[in-house]
tRNA pseudouridine synthase B (Jeotgalibacillus soli), 305 residues
Amino acid sequence: MDGILPLWKEAGMTSHDCVFKVRKLLKMKKVGHTGTLDPDVDGVLPICLGRATKVAEYITDAGKSYRGEVTIGWSTTTEDASGELVDKKPVDKEWVVEEITTVLNSFVGRIQQTPPMFSAVKVNGKRLYEYARQGISVERPSRIVTIYSIKIIRDSFKQNEDSITFSFDVSCGKGTYIRTLAVMIGEAMGYPAHMSKLTRTSSAAMTQEHCITLSQLEKIADQIEEVKQYLFPLEAGVSQLKKLDISDKVAEKVKNGAVLPLPKEWPAALDEQVVFMENGHALAIYHCHPSKEGLIKPTKVLWIE
């Protein structure tokens, strides 16, 4: 069984837990997730099955959407509700939705983030959360991420005696930490803050309406045709890449991973990757040869005989 299973991950489970359960339910070895969701976070977690595991990294790189809730007034060690208190400052100013909208709009575009200490980013071969658990603070590499859109949910806005909470919808690119974004929103407002809730609402082309829960999967796991109705094809995992339809003659060479001349109809910039397609099926992902001008070579061959 090959394809992408859009799973709705429930809070309290790790992404690895989900992969383990899917592997066990479907009795498959080749199962992989497409980027971790923190245990406290629920939402869309595409699971790659069989041949589709080859495109897992491309789903990870694709855009994602979230609905988050930020609490303004105090910050935590983990930047979310599960951490210990770090700083507290009562919100002593009356805020209105229009002012917060202006703050949120300032984050649209390319922004710089520093990953939280409690994250899976590696520094010197070790995950940041491993340092954090030992009480060791290390210098964290900043990264540039993209916020495509961010909008407050107007009826979620609440101002209490010394804090503010509101929810927002955000669409973002690879590597964005919504926890860190919540902290940055607070900083822009002049207060410590943390992310109090988070749900991933979409990943690549997959949304909540496409998803199946683990409990639902358990009921149909032995009915392959039922399971297949939930699957997205492997091609959905590379939907963000440029496509090029090729002839049968070229397809045979592509299936064998051949180095080829750069086609005149190459649809991408020279530093981009292109999916070679035959009759609607993705055969391989190619890129320009790094050392031989005018040639292209496979990044990954997707076709299996």
Observations:
- The mean pLDDT is 91.
- The chain has three domains: 3-62+204-236, 64-203, 241-301.
- Residues 241-301 form a domain with the Archaeosine Trna-guanine Transglycosylase; Chain: A, domain 4 fold (CATH 2.30.130.10).
